[in-house]
Amino acid sequence: MGQQIRQINLEDDKPTVAQALARLQLELQLARRQDVCVLKIIHGFGSTGNGGKIRVAVRKQLPDDQKRGHIRFFIPGEKLTIFEEDTRRLLQICPAFRKDHDIDRHNNGITVVVLKDKKG
Predict the structure, then answer these.
(1) From CA 9, how far away is CA 103, in angstroms rounded?
(2) Which of 1, 48, 101, 113 is the most exposed place for a label (fewest CB within 10 A)?
(3) Rounded to whole angstroms, how far apart are CA atoms 51 and 43?
(4) Tens digit of pLDDT for each residue in 24-79?
(5) Which residues contact 54 (CB under 8 A, 6 or more apart)?
């Protein structure tokens, strides 16, 4: 698994929820093909109304992606802390993510996706 980290902003251009989810699926496919280790998703937290809807939809979609084996796991930004087991797991898989400024900031406007290893 590569150590590449990619960040996408699903709020760019103020998309509808459907447009944001379609972009997320496209970005996940591209990331898997390009050996990306972690995809950091900026979806907002709802201060404008759109971010909240996108955040809810993204977090509803990701468990399905995980069940289908498209991603390993995901971490909501508010749980992106070294005190959470999934964050420690993320840092073992992709040590380069230690430099990310959102660790321990409890940012509910982001979600971090750890992609599935090409072997399995």
Answers:
(1) 18
(2) 101
(3) 6
(4) 999 999 999 998 999 999 998 876 545 589 999 999 999 999 999 999 999 999 99
(5) 10, 11, 15, 17, 20, 43, 44
